[in-house]
Amino acid sequence: MSAPTTTRTRPLARVTRLAVATVLAAAGVLAAAPAQAADNPYERGPAPTAALLEASRGPFATASQSVSSLSVSGFGGGVIYYPTSTSEGTFGAIAISPGYTAAWSSISWLGPRIASHGFVVIGIETNSRLDQPDSRGRQLLAALDYLVQRSSVRGRIDGTRLAVAGHSMGGGGSLEAAVSRPALQAAVPIAPWNLDKTWSDVRVPTLIIGGESDSIAPVSSHSVPFYNSIPASSEKAYLELNGASHFFPQTVNTPTGRQMVAWLKRFVDNDTRYEPFLCPGPSGFEIEEYRNTCPSA
C-alpha cells in the first residue's frame, strides 16, 4: 500500500509496475491476453479504455427483471440487471440503494450501465422511503443474499464477489453494510449521508463520491470525514465533483459511472487493467478533488 495521494484538477506523477508493464508490452515482452486472463479467472471483457468507461453502455448486452416486494424479505423488491452472456462464467454482483424518500428510479441509470461491464446489479426499493442508513445497510445485504440464494439469476453470480453502493442515506447505508460484512469486495457511497462520522472499522475497499455544492450532505461534514476516518490500510478513494449538488447521481454523470465501474472491476473482479483509472485517477474541469491510496499489487 503506497501513501495516500491527492489530486486537484491534474494527476500526480507516479511510477508503478503498470508503467513498467506498458514498456514491456510495447517491446513484446509480456504474454498475450489469453495467458493474462488465465492468471485472473475473474477478468471479464476487453481491455479498458477511457472511451469504453465513458460510454453509456459497456461491452456486455444486458437484460432486466423486476422483483416484487411480495416475493422477498428484508428489502422492498427492485430491479435486477444482468449480462446475457453465458460464455464468460459467473459475474460479481452489487446491490444499490436509493436515497431518503427516493425510489430506485431516481438513480436507475446505474443498473444497466454497471451490468453492461460484467456485473449482476440489483437496484432496490427500500421497505420505507423514510428508512435510515442502518436500515438501508441491512436491506442491501438482504438483497445480496436474495441474489445469491434465491433469485432466478443466482447461477450467473459468484457469491464470493459482492459489493454495495447507494445514494445519500443509501450511501450511508453502504458504509453500514461494509462494516457489518467485511467480506464484501467493494463499497461505493455516493453523496453519502450518515450521523455517524467515524468509519475506522471499514475494511472493504471504498470509493466515496461527493458533490462540491451539496447542501444536504455537505462534503465537509459527510464525505470528507467519512473518507478520512477509513484506515489508510484499507483501499479507499475520494472523488469530489466540481459544483455538483446532492442530486448529481440522479442524472447520467460520466465521472460517477466511469469511476464506479473502474472501482468495481478492480476490486470485485481483481482486474488490475483498471488501475490506471484509479491511480493517479481522474482529472479535468469536472473534478474538484481526487484522493486515493493507490491499489497495491
UniProtKB/TrEMBL annotation:
The leader peptide range reads 1-37
Keyword Signal part of the UniProt annotation: yes
Q: Which UniProt keywords apply?
A: Hydrolase, Signal
Supply the Pfam families for this chain: PETase
InterPro entries per the record? AB_hydrolase_fold, FrsA_esterase, PET_hydrolase/cutinase-like
> Where do the PET hydrolase/cutinase-like domain residues begin and end?
36-295
Q: Which domain of life is it from?
A: Bacteria
> Has UniProt tagged this entry with the keyword Metal-binding?
no
Gene Ontology MF terms: carboxylic ester hydrolase activity
- Assigned protein family: Belongs to the AB hydrolase superfamily.
Q: Which PANTHER family match?
A: DIENELACTONE HYDROLASE DOMAIN-CONTAINING PROTEIN-RELATED, POLYKETIDE TRANSFERASE AF380
Name assigned to this protein: Cutinase
